[in-house]
Amino acid sequence: MNRIGAFSLGLRSVMPLLLGVAPFGVIYGVVALQSGIPPLAAMAMSSIVFAGSAQFLLAQLVGAGAPLLLTAGAVGLVNLRHALYSASVAPILAHLPRRWKVLLAYLLTDEAYAAAIPHLLVADNDAGRPHAHWILFGSGFGLWAGWQVATLAGVLIGAQLPSNLGLDFALPLTFIAIIVPMIDSRALLVSALTAGVAAVVLAALPYKVGLFFAALAGLVVGALLTRKAA
User: Fold this and answer.
1) How many CB atoms lie within 10 A of CB 45?
2) Nearest one of 150, 204, 199, 143 to 175, comparing CA atoms
3) Which of 57, 32, 230 is nearest to 150 (CA)?
4) Taking Cα atoms as reference points, which of 92, 35, 27, 90 lies closest to residue 58?
5) 3-state helix/strand/coil string of 66-122
6) Residues 8, 137: contact at Cβ < 8 Å?
7) What is the CB neighbour count within 10 angstroms for residue 211?
8) Which of 92, 97, 135, 112 is nearest to 50 (CA)?
9) How many CA within 13 A on the CB side of residue 112?
10) What ranges do the domains of the chain cover?
11) Tally of helices (H runs) and strands (E runs) in the chain
């Protein structure tokens, strides 16, 4: 497999996922404007942060007037899962120069990883490894491009919608759709229930800080149960 073939494979693999990513990006653009974020800043977030869930949370915290330190901490916690993706692909990409690792780390998101990892594992051999990173580059670039277009559409649409429309419901719905199929063990189930209950109980805390503590509670419970099972 050459570079063009590997890139095309990654690009084709991520295309079906864009059907779900596109409306998510549009709604983000609308929510960002409703939170008081200027259109150019909303687009810059999609280009620089490039993490849908973190961008939703950031927009909500900005709209609530949360302190900068709390906002940065909450967004960083949400994005910790990307470290797991990185650990998974690191052995396959270990031979790459630093510039490639930086680029692929930027493009490594949930959907890009899900689309590329089956093909990366197949290509992880003496014949395919030299061009395996082009698969991840193709899936990551396809997702990035689709996300920018969807965000732009949301920003353009959001400018025409009333500010009190309340589309931020899309964030919890999206996470429910992502999390529920992944719950395949007692530890994951208890962790998800703990985080959900804590989020409801702590919902009245200012600046949505309850979400931060709810996520921590879920992580702690999951770690304790996993260690006990081991």
Assistant:
1) 21
2) 199
3) 32
4) 35
5) CCHHHHHHHHHHHCCHHHHHHHHHHHHHCCCCHHHHHHHHHHCCHHHHHHHHHHHHH
6) no
7) 23
8) 112
9) 29
10) 1-167, 183-230
11) 12, 0
Per residue of the chain (230 residues), give pLDDT as tens: 788 899 999 999 999 888 878 888 888 888 888 888 899 999 999 998 898 888 888 887 887 787 888 788 878 877 877 887 888 898 888 889 999 999 999 999 888 988 898 888 886 665 556 788 999 999 999 999 999 999 999 888 876 766 565 555 655 665 676 577 768 788 889 998 998 999 899 988 876 678 778 878 888 898 888 887 65
What's the token pair of residue 160?
């025409």
pLDDT value of residue 161: 65
Q: How far apart are CA 30 and CA 37, in angstroms?
A: 10
Q: Of 82, 113, 81, 83, whose CA–CA distance to 219 is shortest?
A: 81
Asked if 15 and 143 touch (Cβ cutoff 8 Å), the reply is no
Q: At what angle do helices 170-179 and 52-63 cross, to 10 degrees?
A: 150
What pLDDT was estimated at residue 117?
A: 87
The residues, any chain, with a CB within 8 Å of residue 125's CB and separated by 6 or more, are none
- Residue in 157, 211, 161 with CA at minimum distance from that of residue 25: 157
Record the tokens describing residue 17, joined without a space.
Answer: 């996922």
Separation between Cα atoms, residue 142 and residue 144, nearest integer Å: 5
User: What is the Cα Rg of the chain in Å?
Assistant: 19
